[in-house]
Amino acid sequence: MTRVLAVGSQGSASPFANELRACLSEILRGxxxxxxxxxxxxxxxxxxxxxxxxxxxPVDDPAAFDWPGQWIAVVxxxxxxxxxxxxxxxxGVWLDPSGLEHGGTRIAAGWMLTPLDLxxxxxxxxxxxxxxxxxxxxxxxxxxxxxxxHADEAEALAGRGLAGxxxxxxxxxxxxPGRGYELTLVEAEVLDELELPWEEAxxxxxxxxxxxxxxxxxxxxxxxxxxxxxxxxxxxxxLERLARPGLLRPLVHRGGLRADIVTGGVIRLGDEVxxxx
Length: 277
Description:
The protein is of the alpha+beta class. Helix content is about 15%, strand content about 30%.
């Protein structure tokens, strides 16, 4: 569907973004961050939810959706779009943040808020603060699907990625606006167990001695470079195609970490990796 991304007054988020935020806050019964005016609100909230083992699943036929619980509907009012919380079977309006009485408007899209993994909690789903580890390898590729090459050090560019890498240049397979596209990390212990060459994992930093999952949603340091863990770098069909078949299942929840760079600097082999105090 086409989403309205109009910027509100004084550079604030669009009305649709604020309504979607209110819907998520109602369902989660807690605070939800406000996206920037330049953010695609759906992408922003998807990434934020992933830190909590949650996701938005599109409803195939929202106008006919029959679900006894809460879900989010999008209705069109002229050129504008509005988000509502629906409930019941058949569903009625639970929350209408816009206050425009959209009960009789046709629903154009919808989402279910659901856990990514039913066996994990939504409060710190990926573990506690881990012990410190070290940088075992730094790997860079100049373009999407290009072979990764080892480096002794790399400049970490805040808000971009590692100098010389495809994601800093905006040429990665998954390059785009959002959270967690600047830096990827993976544990050497996992790759060695699977006998997967480090280069074929297609992550930037290989670590040793630290459980990376516990850094989701936390700030951490690689040497003097400050980063923030966004979500797990889960495996996918793209990785299997570039590396080898059969990697998806053994790498689930063990494929590493997607992170952003908060404060730049130089990352070197042997640098300590630890949660920020």
